[in-house]
Amino acid sequence: MTVALSIKEIASQIEKKYPGSIEEAAPNSLIVKSDFLLAIAGYLKDTEGLKFDYFNYVSAVDYYTYFEVVYQLTSLEHNHTVIIKTRCYNRENPTVPSVTGLWQGANFQEREIFDLMGIRFEGHPNLKRIFLWEGFPGHPLRKDYLQ
Amino acid sequence: MEVSSDKEYIYTSTELDRYEGRIIEELKTNSQKSIPDPDAWLDEELKRNILLTSVDAVINWARRSSLWTAICFPACCAFEFIAAMGPRFDLSRFGMDIMRASPRQADLMITAGTLTWKMAPNVVRIYNQMPEPKWVIAMGACAISGGIFRSSYSVVPGYNRIIPVDVYVPGCPPRPEALIYAIQMLHKKINNTTVLPDLPQLMQKGKQ
Amino acid sequence: MTTTGEITFKTEPFVLNFGPVHPSTHGVYRMRATLDGEVVLDIEPVFGYLHRGIEKLAEERTYTGFIPLTDRLDYISPMSNNLGYCLAVEKLAGIKVPERAEYIRVIMAELQRLANHCIAVGSFLSDCGAMFTPFMYMFREREKILDLFDMVCGGRLTYNYMRIGGVSQDIPDEFLPALQKFMGTMPGMIEEWENLLKQNEILLARTKGVGILPREMAINCGISGPVARGSGVKWDLRKADPYCIYDRFEFDIPTGEVGDCYDRYRVRVEEMKQSLRIIKQAMEKVPSGPVRAEVPHLIRPPAGEAYAHIEAPKGELGFYIVSDSSIAPYRCHVRPTSLINLTALREMVKGWKVADLIAIFGSIDITMGEVDR
Asked: What residue spans define the domains of chain C?
């Protein structure tokens, strides 16, 4: 049975290593600041006892005042999972660091989020539209997109 | 994009994407109205003026008994078409067992699946490559009017925006039996066409 | 520079477009391949020719009204898509599904796995050059499974059968005897075409050692399903994170060792046999009772979010739903199995020839409806 790791434990571990990086420790997920995202992701991937080597998915949600990018990671060895979120409050030009260097599986999914939501990922090898054509006006999945 | 013979052009994939994007936007602005169906064969006036000769009968029999399909399989209806070609609902008893990839050798296009604006220029290109006489069967709800996806931002509301359609088959997806019925309707339509050119109409076109 | 005897001539790589329309059943997939003669140097996949905006349409439809749209995601295995979505909403709303519905769901999901692998193996063999013969054999079996589905829900390709809280209607009385009859013939059929193909020289030459996916890359890219299991990753959600009532059944998980096309093909064939085993166990114990929990028609789950994943025939299919307690989902994201399985395609084909490119692409088994949504 895949166990969702207790957020409080991981939060305290990460707080010790990278102080000031956690924005909120919600009951199901860990919300981190986007500057520390790469460091925390690397820490989660490599530490013994955590070893999150399998990248489930990355998704983005538009909550009118901010965008929230959601990552889910699983460890095949220990059979546990964790959800990490990061928020962008900049509506005009949201940017989040890309985790493609750590998990290749994020490649196409981050391009999709850029295409449909407009969030740019720094460090992505090939950030361009994937589903819609170049020249499509706007980003459809945003809540303020009008047809 | 012109390529001059003395220079070497290497286009990056982003430039190719932008070029294709411009083509798609152009097609989208030009296809705001649907193309009317070619249903002159139903016209009573025309029926009285045309005499179907035995030459017509033979040629129409030859044309309808060996319709070869061009491949245009975007989505789910494709699997009902493939099932119709399968061992249970055999389409090769109608002479349609050839499913060549080349549109130059085809005379029927069965459009099986949802059409998006990104795919539309390619479908128009395939249709233009087919030699006359050619027919189109719009298969499924998505091909008739956009279907369940009509209100989406990237779906063309029916194939008749970009190409003229002869037979519409409703269903989501239509059963292979429905597709076979549609093909028989197309056979009836082919039976009623004449090979002799319509001289008055051609003279009119020549004058323009 | 290529040399033939005394003559040397300059060669340079060129880009060939494998257009969206091509004679395989995988759908409107396009790639720009950079070739040096016959050898593939690099590919760039282009998607979006079937992008219908299903995730945006989810925000317009009610929770129950979205189930027909999930049918059209991976249109070769719609029952699994329905199941994944219903599990996600049930997790969000805390709904318990009655026992009879659980057994029916497991039987339908495993029958769907059989039907999917029929097409996957059939089209892979067509891509390898066996024209249409194995494809027609598989289609004959698939028609029998589709007849069973037709009996239950009236549809052959898009079923719209699962509902939130169970299934939409009870199975008719003639379903279980017909399923029994089908179970009697199917193992013999699998053995028939396995015997035809086991020692086939052409199949072995074209697939053994071709398109190897290393184990670490499979895990890093997030690849799941028969593709990952062919590379030796022993990860199956039915055992690792059991959903429905899969923990009550006994079955094995076939894995490959090398990770080439042949291993992926063998994994799918063995999975078909294991599916038959699960259906046999489930068929004997179907209890009586209601088939649907008491849920309102316009369901309003409490505000929150949930992610539920299932082992769909192609891999891990997941639905991430965010709700704000209105009648429509606030955001519904589909974890696209086929799109993620395609991440490693570029690495797998470098250095192989064009014909191998088609075979490798066929062995991953994707559906464009799921890639593009």
From this structure: 14-372
Work out the burial of residue A65: count CB atoms within 10 Å of its CB; fewer than 13 is exposed, 13-18 middle, 19 or more buried: exposed
Chains that touch A (3 or more CB pairs under 8 A): B, C
All residue ranges of chain B with pLDDT < 50 are 1-7
pLDDT of residue A79: 84
The residue ranges of every structural domain in chain A are 3-122
Contact of B86 with chain C, judged by CB distance below 8 Å, is answered with: yes
pLDDT of amino acid C310? 92
For helices B54-64 and B176-191, the axis angle rounded to 10 degrees is: 160
A128/B contact by beta carbon, under 8 A: yes
Q: What CATH number should be reported for the domain whose range is C14-372?
A: 1.10.645.10
What integer pLDDT is reported at residue B7 of this predicted model? 47
Q: pTM of the entire structure?
A: 0.90
Single-letter residue type at C360: I
| CB contact (8 A) between residue A59 and residue C51 | no
**pLDDT tens-digit map of C168-212:** 889 898 998 999 999 999 999 888 888 888 888 888 888 888 888
* Contact with chain B for residue A132, Cβ under 8 A: yes
Phi/psi-derived region of residue B147, left when phi > 0, alpha when psi is between -120 and 50, beta in every other case: left
Q: A41: Cβ–Cβ under 8 A, 6 or more apart, which residues?
A: A71, A84, A99, A102
- CATH number at A3-122: 3.30.460.80
Which stretches of chain C drop beneath a pLDDT of 70?
Answer: 1-5, 25
Are B95 and B65 contacting, i.e. CB atoms less than 8 angstroms apart? yes
